[in-house]
Write a structure and sequence with these properties.
GO molecular function, one term: ATP binding
Oligomer: single chain
Shape: globular
Number of strands: 10
Protein name: NitT/TauT family transport system ATP-binding protein
CATH topology of one domain: Rossmann fold
Family: Belongs to the ABC transporter superfamily.
Distance between the termini: 27 Å
Helix content: 25-40%
Radius of gyration: 18 Å
Largest sheet: 7 strands, mixed
CATH architecture of one domain: 3-Layer(aba) Sandwich
Strand order of the largest sheet: 1-10-9-4-8-7-6
Structural class: alpha/beta
Number of helices: 8
Strand content: 15-25%
Organism: Muricoccus roseus
Low-confidence stretches: 1-21
Order of helices and strands: EEEEHEEHHHEHEHEEHH
Bound molecules: adenosine-5'-triphosphate
Pfam families: ABC_tran (PF00005)
């Protein structure tokens, strides 16, 4: 059985760095805390390095601050204390929400092209790029369909294409597949992995699912709540190509067991 050699941090500042990745960090969080206006302390004193080009999952019980953390990295929520550093050039960010949040009155093509339109790109070029992205997510045929004409999985594909059309260096995904059936979810997991292999953006993926986190990631960061903090940092040694053979392998089962145990620890913490 593969041994992921988890680094239990138990929320102790400093120990989180023990599993720090060797590649240069795309983003570095230092002493990050978030207290909402109503007094809720959602995240406290969090240190985390995310290696450039890596695929990292944030896993933890409901309410432990995963979305808050992701929104702070995206600049959508201000920090209360601490800092977020970008050691390289400031990256282009892409964000995929749990809901596809498409414009209902626009076609799939126009939804994907929207960020380019907002950036002031000429129509012919933005449509060309949007078509290319739709092809990458397997939706060429649906370019002129409206969101209401698409299935939940197709809508999520459009949403991913829209996030990738600006060629982000850092893709933040907040439980993007939580509302989908398992077959669609597995398919989109594979689509996302193929896109990541092709483009090597840094991916930070928030999920509740141990199985999904192990399937997708090179590293699973387990958070505990009350207030949100790091609990464990687990490398996921897996074959370079993750596919159905990996999903049904004993090593996958072993890794899932180790991550489940860390999650149970986080819930008890
Ligand atoms: N805008 C807000 N105002 C006040 N409190 C908030 C706000 N957003 C989140 N919280 C609180 O902050 C804590 C962390 O919430 P957050 O959504 O980040 O957790 P989460 O781990 O992503 O949860 P889930 O997995 O259920 O989506 C929770 O206690 C939540 O109630």
């Amino acid at each position: 059985m593969a041994d992921p050699s988890p680094t239990e941090t138990n929320g102790t500042p400093g120990l989180a760095g023990a599993a720090a990745p060797r590649a240069p960090a795309a983003v570095r969080l230092r002493g990050v805390s978030k207290r909402y206006a109503n007094g809720t302390l959602a995240v406290e004193g969090l240190d985390l390095d995310i290696a450039a080009g890596s695929f990292v999952s944030l896993l933890g019980p409901s309410g432990c601050g995963k979305s808050t953390l992701l929104r702070m990295v995206a600049g959508l929520a201000p920090l209360s204390t601490g800092r977020i550093e970008w050691p390289g050039a400031t990256p282009r960010l892409g964000f995929v929400f749990q809901e596809p949040t498409l414009m209902p009155w626009q076609t799939a093509l126009d939804n994907v092209a929207l960020p380019l339109k907002l950036a002031g790109m000429a129509q012919a070029e933005r449509q060309r790029r949007a078509r290319e992205m739709l092809a990458l997510v397997g939706l060429s045929e649906a370019a002129s369909s409206y969101p209401r004409e698409l299935s939940g999985g197709m809508r999520m594909r459009v949403s991913i294409a829209r996030a990738l059309v600006t060629q982000p260096d850092l893709l933040l995904l907040d439980e993007p597949f939580a509302a989908l059936d398992e077959i669609t979810r597995f398919r989109l997991n594979n689509d996302l992995l193929r896109l990541w292999e092709a483009h090597r953006f840094t991916a930070v993926f928030v999920t509740h699912s141990v199985f999904e986190s192990v399937y997708l990631s090179e590293r699973v960061v387990v958070m505990a709540g009350g207030p949100g903090r790091l609990h464990a940092d687990l490398p996921i040694p897996a074959p370079p190509r993750r596919d159905e053979a990996f999903r049904t392998s004993p090593s996958y089962a072993g890794l899932c067991r180790a991550v489940s145990e860390a999650l149970a620890g986080a819930m008890a913490a």
